[in-house]
């Protein structure tokens, strides 16, 4: 029984080939294709409006140097948002429940922001490791603590996204299993459980959107510290 709950987090295979790559490429099919007209239909207009809103929200705290990252951050936001929401559909696989994928997204982007700061303003970037006015006996300890907090950032990004989505998917499966098991024994309790399941599903939709936004927002804040 315990293994069946976690089977949803294993990538489905076809002829021994994992289909995770196909599931990661599928959100790209939702993006509108360029046409000869300015406005093609209502869906393209809505997608363009959402992309413009996301870009403005992410680029507001950054200066002009940080606007070069607009395409990367907006694309990452759309990718995570699409994968998280598509993963809530029945009989689907959510790649963002895999820590390996989230770390593969978090670590290179965090390292890029860190190297950007070390290249453009090395003194200010290294100055974050030691706050001004620190007593002399506390300097070694504070440098060690700040360095640890700096290096743990990509791990926190990946674990946060993985843990929130994994917990939500497990909770949905547990409640749905209980609702189906109680249907013949206690129908009233089963109906109440189903109502709770619907409310939880709505909550998970919000969590999927919020976690994608938080992931990209924290990367933009790390970028703000280094430009």
UniProtKB/TrEMBL annotation:
SUPFAM superfamilies: F1F0 ATP synthase subunit A. Gene3D superfamilies: ATP synthase, F0 complex, subunit A (1.20.120.220). One of its GO terms (molecular function) is proton-transporting ATP synthase activity, rotational mechanism. It is found in: Mitochondrion inner membrane. Keywords: ATP synthesis, CF(0), Hydrogen ion transport, Ion transport, Membrane, Mitochondrion, Mitochondrion inner membrane, Transmembrane, Transmembrane helix, Transport. Its main location: mitochondrion. GO terms for cellular component: mitochondrial inner membrane; proton-transporting ATP synthase complex. It holds the Pfam family ATP-synt_A. The keyword Transcription regulation does not apply. Coiled coil: none annotated. CDD domains: ATP-synt_Fo_a_6. It comes from the Eukaryota. The keyword Transferase does not apply. It catalyses: H(+)(in) = H(+)(out). The chain crosses the membrane at residues 12-31, 69-89, 101-118, 138-158, 170-189, 195-223. PROSITE patterns: ATPASE_A (PS00449). NCBIfam families: ATP_synt_6_or_A. Belongs to the ATPase A chain family. Component of the ATP synthase complex composed at least of ATP5F1A/subunit alpha, ATP5F1B/subunit beta, ATP5MC1/subunit c (homooctomer), MT-ATP6/subunit a, MT-ATP8/subunit 8, ATP5ME/subunit e, ATP5MF/subunit f, ATP5MG/subunit g, ATP5MK/subunit k, ATP5MJ/subunit j, ATP5F1C/subunit gamma, ATP5F1D/subunit delta, ATP5F1E/subunit epsilon, ATP5PF/subunit F6, ATP5PB/subunit b, ATP5PD/subunit d, ATP5PO/subunit OSCP. This is ATP synthase subunit a.
